[in-house]
Design goal:
By secondary structure, the protein is of the alpha+beta class. It contains three helices and three strands, in the order αααβββ. The radius of gyration is 14 Å and the shape is globular.
Length: 98
Amino acid sequence: MSTFYHTFFKNPNGDWRYILGFEPTFMPAEDLKIYRNIQWNYGETKAYLPWVKKMRPEDRLALLKGPSNKPDLKGLEWHYAAGGIWLGRLPRPPSATP
C-alpha cells in the first residue's frame, strides 16, 4: 500500500488504475483473497502468482525489494524503478521485424 500512496499522491491524475489502493477491503473479493494470502505468507513472492496469472500486457506488478533483490517470480520481466520498487510485466512478444 505504501507504493500506492507514494505514486497516487505524486500523480493524482495518472491514467492508470490500482488493484490495491486506499483500503484493501475496497478490492474485488477474489483479489482481496489473494492479498490476504500474500499477507499470511509474509509477502512470499510465490503468493503473487494468482495476480500474475490475471495480468494483461498493460498491467504492472510493483514489489518493494532492495536494488539487488530482484523478485524471483517467474513469468514476468522485471525492471528496478527506484527507491526499492521493482516493476514486473508480462514479457513482450518477439518482434515481427527480421
